[in-house]
Design brief:
The chain is of the alpha+beta class. The chain has one domain: Clavaminate synthase-like (Double-stranded beta-helix, 4-Layer Sandwich). The protein is built from 8 helices and 15 strands. The chain has a 7-stranded mixed β-sheet, covered by helices on one side. The chain has a 3-stranded antiparallel β-sheet with strand order 12-6-14. It has a 3-stranded antiparallel β-sheet with strand order 8-7-11. The two termini are 17 Å apart. The relative contact order is 0.24.
Amino acid sequence: MSVTFKPLHPNFVAEVSEIDLREVNDPQTLAELRAGMAKYGVLVFKNQHFSNQEQLDFAQRMDGELHAKTSSSVLAKNRFGNEALTDISNVGQDGSILGAEDRRRMNGISNRIWHTDASFEDPAGRYSMLYARNIPPVRADTQFADMRSAYQALDEDTKKTIADLHVHHSIVYSRHTMGFDFSEEESAKLKGAIHPLVRICADNPLPALYLASHASRVMEWAIPEGRLLLKDLIEHATQTQFTWSHQWSLNDLVIWDNRTTMHRARPFDDVKYKRELTRVTTLDLPQRQAA
């Protein structure tokens, strides 16, 4: 089964030709999709029809072990019964829209700031696969930033300055900046992780900035200077020439590489309209576990 890629941005993102990912099992097609991910960083698939289990199964075939230590898992039981199938929705267990002050909603709203999935874990997230099961009648885009192009556009002095720096990533920190606080018990389950500020991956050799809202401090620098550096780099990486927005249609699946992109949800009236998406994120293990 051969696939083709239609670029949607000069530097990254492509839409994949018609394909039913539920039926993709052969090594050649999976290898072509992984090669597309290495080249484009974000892939868009139209007209998918996943059940919950089918989405999980495809993610494992595509990239192996799944991430399940999410921030939402410490707040409430997953309504799908599997923490690896993250509920990116504004509805509760009974399917009704969450109230404005609901803690699950307030935690979810923080997805509107630039972030990378599971960077607060070690191993961190590699691919995220977000599927649209129910979309509102208004735009509720997801925006992406190309961290490879952003790195390449830095001046040489800045590249040298940041080359060997490491950053502590904490979802407790990023949520706190949004006015959301975890309890001590919840925070203990979300301790954070340290990663290089510039990442070069074996399957994706172009350097990329690795930061975003979970990036709480630069380990080698004093906190004020380090946070200013991170703030400046995020502002740089989210300039118009490095970003692209996906306008959701029902049954879209978007896959992105968390090591080479940032993303954020764009706001909509989430106390009026339902929006239900499910996300599966794979772990950035040294050796891919997929078949």
